[in-house]
Each structure stands twice: as structure tokens, then as C-alpha cells.
Write the C-alpha cells for this entry.
Amino acid sequence: MDFKDYYKILGVEATADEKAIKAAYRKLARKYHPDVSKERDAEEKFKEANEAYEVLGDAQKRAEYDEIRKYGGQHGRPFQAPPGWESRGGGGGFEGGDFSDFFSSIFGARGGNPFGGRGQQRSAGRRGQDVELELAIFLEETLSKESKQISFQVPQTNGAGQRTGFTTKTLNVKIPAGVTDGERIRLKGQGAPGSGGGANGDLFLTIRMAPHPLFDVEGHDLIVTVPLAPWEAALGTKVEVPTLEGKINLTIRPDSQSGQRLRVKGMGLVNKQGERGNLYAQLKVVMPTTSNEAARELWTKLSEKAAFNPRAQWSK
């Protein structure tokens, strides 16, 4: 039988870590999934990628494969069993055609280590695959006490642990207080189902904060830009400022400066301790885009009366 180089199939180095292996598998699975791919050999490529990840995505299988890899496929020779090899009886519980003869010859139903029983007997049950999912949430949802409904795909397996397809799973998830962009949340047992009595895998949610049209985020503080006309900044005014929970009235004092920040305490995001950050209203003086002759005359009088040089510090 031919030796299968699972690292080559996934397109990764033999030193690749778990994250790189998983990423490579997902890329190939998306490319060759029979439901979406139009390539002629898509189904075969998809099965090869599944088989490679079945081995390299499991620490124990990968260790056995790395050891047996020393004997396989060198200089174009066919695969030969290493010294001390115990036959697995043609694959045992893995019969069904989804995995190659090479796979079945190494990872048959009896388990254990292929080199004369140096490892422990493998349990009949197999833990289900973990599922990774990015979850986009709005800033307003971090303050909500309502659950958020999510749907995602989980791989299905038969009693022998062979992948048979995917199914959609729906959950109601409570967004934890104080969650931040990029945070990873584990939902135990919500991944793919186990086989042969094995435990379910876990669901890992990576939080992604959806960009907000009005607010920037700094830690648990929020920044909102407040546009002001020049005369509003000079004379002072009251403006309505948006928050995540409605609008508030904010007093702008006379002679306010563009770029100045006004703090509104306790109107930001919630932290891990359940406390609220602050909202900062950042002032921005905005000039009119057009002006008529009367307005320009007033600007001229203002420039004469104010006697103000904004670049005075340059001469110091």
C-alpha cells in the first residue's frame, strides 16, 4: 500500500502547531467540500483532508504517526510495516470506506501503540471535535441581559468515529459582563458529539466587537465625537449627546477647545467586576462649508476684534 504524507496533504510542515494544522484543514475543507466545490476530484480531496486532520488533529494519533513516518514512503518505496508492528486486522471499527487502507492499518479498532504495546490501551469512546466560531456582537448587546441566539455547523460522526457530514446547531448564549474584543469563551460540551460513549467536544467563541457608527472603544470607556460650530465653542451651549442607552444633555462651556474631552461618568461599557466605564465626549470644532458675503464680513470684524494669533507659540 502507498504511504500517505498527511503533512503534505494539509500543506503544513511537520513542526506545525495545532493552530496551523486546524487552519490548514479548514481552508481545504471549505475549498473541496462536495456541496460547494465544482472541482472534479473535490470529494476525494475532501476525504484526504479529513483523514489527514483525523490524525494530525489528535495528539495521540499524531505521535504514533510521527513515529511510523520514519519507515514510510522514503525514496519512493512503498510503505512497509516497522519492526515489531502488530497487525490491526484491516482496520476493525474503521471499516466503511471513508478512510484509506493506510489509515486503517495504523489506527484499527484495537488501539494501543503499534510498536508492541508500549502505550496504553485506547478507550473505545472518542471525544467529539471542538468547534471554533467568531461571534460578532454590537456594543449595545454587552449591556443587555437577554441571550443571543447563534447557529453554527458541527461535524457528525458514526459509531466508528467516521465523519458523516455536518449539521446545524442553535444555542441561546448569554454574553458575559465585561467581554472584550478578541476574548475567547469556552462553552463546555457544545461542540461535536462524541462517539462510542465519548464526551462531546467544546464550543469556543471568539468575540468580535462590531464597529459602531458613533462610538470608539478604549478599554471599557467609550469615545463619542461631538461636532460644534465655532460660535458654540466660543459662547458655550447645550447639546444632546448619544449614549448606548439614549441621549443626554451636555453643557459646553464658553471658550471650549477642539479636541477637548468631557467625561460622563459611568456611561461606558461594563467591566468584569460589573462596574461601568466612562463616556468621553470629544469636542470637534467644525467650520461651515460655505458662507455668504454678510457672514464673511462678520468673520472679518471678529478677526479684528479678537486679535488672536493661533500660531503665536511658533515664534517662541
User: Anything to note?
Assistant: Residues 18-32 form the longest helix (15 residues). The two ends are 84 Å apart (CA to CA).
